[in-house]
Structures are given as structure tokens and as C-alpha cells.
Amino acid sequence: MTRIWHFDPTPGAVNLLPDAVLERVRPAQRAVVFGGAGMSAESGIATFRDALSGALWSRFDAERLATPEAFLRDPALVWGWYEWRRMQALKAQPNPAHRAVVELAQRLPGLCVITQNVDDLHERAGSREVLHLHGSLHQARCFDCAAAHPLETMPDEPDGGRRLPPPRCAHCGGLVRPGVVWFGEMLLAEVLDVAFEASGACDLFLSIGTSGLVHPAAQLPALARRQGATLLHVNPQKPQGVADEDYCLLGPAGAILPLLLQQAWG
């Protein structure tokens, strides 16, 4: 039976993490942090589909906008949406969960941070060499020649959204596209390879704020489990695909991860 612990948000409540969890965290030598949308949501960043709340975007299906075909069909619509999303990401601030990951790396020097998010909140909190499985809002590139294209530090987009023609590539004149992985595209092989290697070699795998259902990223926790790693899920609800031998800490990552640091190392 899965080991489940519930965070008590009542003011003044004493939340003591299970000793079995602390005993597995302290000696870890090759830990992996695998983060999903729940981590960014605690910083106020809308999830992928929630991001269609703007007056213009509400008429569209997120999955229909996030494809190469959609971009070629209407570049200004897609580019405008992603610049609006990038502005929201830049306005957000790292939360205690992001900062706890930085401190966790100081306790566990072999820590590898893997994220499914396309913001830069891990880096802004101080994490280094973060593996972005789904790319980044902040690393635009040419649709045709893949040359990198620098972006303004902060877009100035209206709340309701707008159509915005994308810039042209300085190298070939092609349309500049967002640096994210769209539906129908393969994840970057070099990033995925490192993520699989780290997951297959780890002794502790922390899955934070993710349902673990999106493939191929969903294979990472299963790979770690097969290799004998301890799996620790931190999420408001029990994720799907949790195995009997896993541990689940249910509640906000911004509250639970600092508790983990404090109670594991004092």
C-alpha cells in the first residue's frame, strides 16, 4: 500500500514528516527533482490550459495553438499568445519550493533538476543546469534554420491578449518561433538522454507538482523505480500511476519542501 502523508494547513499545526521518508532523503547520493506545472502554479503562473483565460485566447483550444501547423497557419496569433505567456512568467517570482530545491542541492551535491515547465523560475531561484524537457519561453529560435533569437527582457502585452507578428530571423529571414516543444514535436534528444540517464542512476526521485502522465516524461519515475530508487511524490492530490512502494506527501510543495529540509537536516 502506498505510504501517504497529508499536510495540515491549520495555523499552528505541527507537521512531522514520516521518519521513513527522512531516513531515505538524508543519505541520498544521486537525487533527481522532477518538477511539473504544480510548482509554477504556486507562483501564480497559470497552467497550460488555464492560460487561455485572456479575451482573445478564450476562443481557442490550447492544443490547437501549440502546434507547428497552427504557427504556420496564423503566426501572429500563436506568437502573441506565447509572448503573453512569457510576460506572465516573467512577472511571477520563485516560490519557497523553488528555493528549497536550491538548498536541497547544497545538501545533496549530486542533485539533478528536471522540469516540464517552460518558465525560468528554477534558474531565477538559483538552480543551475536545469534540464528543460519541454523547452523554454525565453529561448526563441528560427522556425527554418533554428538559429537562436534574443528576446526583449519583458514583453508589454495587454491583459486580454493580442495578435502579434513574430520577428524575422537575422540569419535567414525566417519566422522566429517560441522555444518550446509543441504537440507533434519530439523532445530534444540530448536533453531527454541526460534525463533518462540521471533517472536510471538515482537513488532518490522527487516528483513535485506533476501528474506523471505526459509521455515520454512519465517514463522517468518508472525508470527510477525499476532501478531501486525511492520515489517521493509531493503534490496536492495523489498522482495517478503511484506504485505501492512510493511515498506521497500531499499538500503544497512550497510548504512541504522546506519542512523536508528542516526535518531532515535541522
How are the SSEs placed, and which strands pair?
Layout: E1 3-6, H1 19-25, E2 31-35, H2 37-41, H3 62-65, H4 68-73, H5 75-91, H6 96-107, E3 112-115, H7 121-125, E4 131-132, E5 135-142, E6 176-180, H8 189-201, E7 204-208, H9 219-226, E8 230-235, E9 247-250, H10 253-265
Parallel strand pairs: 1-9, 2-3, 2-7, 3-4, 7-8, 8-9
Antiparallel strand pairs: 5-6
Helix pairs in contact: 6-10, 8-9
Supply the key terms:
266 residues; SIR2/SIRT2 'Small Domain'; two-stranded antiparallel sheet; 34% helix; 16% strand; 2 domains; Rossmann fold
Q: Output the CATH topology of the largest domain.
A: Rossmann fold
The count of strands amounts to: 9
Largest sheet: 7 strands, parallel
CATH class of the largest domain: Alpha Beta
N- to C-terminal distance: 29 Å
Which segments are poorly predicted (pLDDT under 50) over 5 or more consecutive residues?
none
Q: Can you tell me the number of structural domains?
A: 2
Strand order of the largest sheet: 1-9-8-7-2-3-4
